[in-house]
Specification:
Blueprint (H helix, E strand, L loop, with lengths): L4 H13 L2 H8 L3 H15 L4 E2 L6 E2 L1 H28 L5 E7 H6 L1 H11 L4 E7 L1 H9 L5 E5 L7 E9 L1 E5 L13 E2 L5 H12 L8 E2 L3 H9 L5 E4 L4 H6 L3 E2 L9 E8 L6 H10 L11
Helix pairs in contact: 1-2, 1-3, 1-4, 2-3
């Protein structure tokens, strides 16, 4: 009896997405092909691995046992590749890194560019999503490293502090109105920045219910520049505008709270040479260290 690792991978995707069609879409395969691969695996093991009777595919008891072993098998295969790559060094390979919306958009490109200058033969990919998405990419093995504003709560991840995400109050240059006279602008609901903005407004004695809502960081910044109001934002998002003088900071009393920027990886996964070099580079480019790993 010989197990096919490709079929094991497909089997895990079917369980992960709860159906053959959803898995086929993620795998860029036809639904019949995915179904046939799982049936071939069942034939090899002479047992039923999935319960097809409901609207959502569920593993049988045998399927749950196989899934546990399959994850361990595929993880060992990844580690074997990583071990070989360590011997090969940074002359070839890839770096896949994800970041939460603000960090991924405004901080990661610069960090990856500095890494690319050191290791130009490494192909670098950046993914940007909300915290839930970045955690999922890490746990699914789609990326090796994730950078977050704050600290992800997933137990399977280890984290290390690499910097600080400071909040600033911004306005259009030349605006002389007092805070009490200002209109505040907020990000859309569901954004983690929105939660921090509302907390900052309450600390400043301002009712968040009186604010206007603008969707997206760029829209918010342009709204402030146009004189629609003022806003609390991450300092990373306005570094260029503050340097160019198209926006200015407004003193806040009390000072606005900051949160750590952390790098996370799966605890049970070996870092590739590119990933290890990237994490080491962070200590050489002036980011703060600390936290835990």
């Amino acid at each position: 009896m010989e197990l096919n690792t490709h079929r094991l991978s497909i089997f895990l995707r079917v369980l992960e997405h709860g159906g053959f069609s959803a898995a086929a879409e993620k795998l860029y395969m036809s639904q019949p092909s995915v179904s046939n691969q799982v049936r071939a695996l069942e034939t090899t093991l002479r047992t039923q691995l999935v319960d097809r009777s409901g609207a959502r595919i569920r593993p049988t008891e045998e399927g749950r046992v196989l899934a546990d072993y399959a994850r361990r098998i595929l993880l060992l295969m990844d580690e074997a590749v990583t071990a070989v790559e360590r011997v090969r060094g940074l002359h070839q390979g890839s770096l896949a890194i994800g970041g939460t919306t603000t960090i991924g958009t405004y901080l990661l490109p610069g960090l990856v560019a500095r890494f690319h200058a050191v290791a130009p033969d490494i192909a670098c990919d950046i993914r940007v999503g909300n915290e839930h998405q970045v955690v999922k990419w890490l746990l699914d093995g789609e990326i090796g490293l994730g950078v977050f504003a704050g600290e992800p709560a997933a137990e399977q991840l280890s984290t290390r502090r690499i910097g600080t995400d400071e909040m600033v109050l911004i306005g259009a240059p030349g605006d002389t109105q007092s805070l009490a006279e200002q209109r505040f602008l907020l990000r859309e609901r569901g954004s983690s920045t929105r939660e921090r903005q509302e907390a900052a407004m309450r600390a400043l004695g301002i009712d968040p219910g009186s604010a206007s809502e603008l969707w997206g960081s760029e829209t918010l910044k342009r709204g402030v520049r146009a004189g629609l109001g003022i806003a609390v934002v991450s300092a990373h998002t306005v570094a260029d505008e503050l340097r160019e003088g198209t926006l200015c900071t407004i003193p806040a009393d009390p000072p606005l709270p900051a949160r750590p920027v952390t790098m996370a990886r799966r605890t049970d996964r070996l870092l590739s040479p590119a990933e290890r070099a990237f994490t080491e580079l962070l200590g050489d480019i002036g980011t703060e260290s600390g936290g835990h790993e």
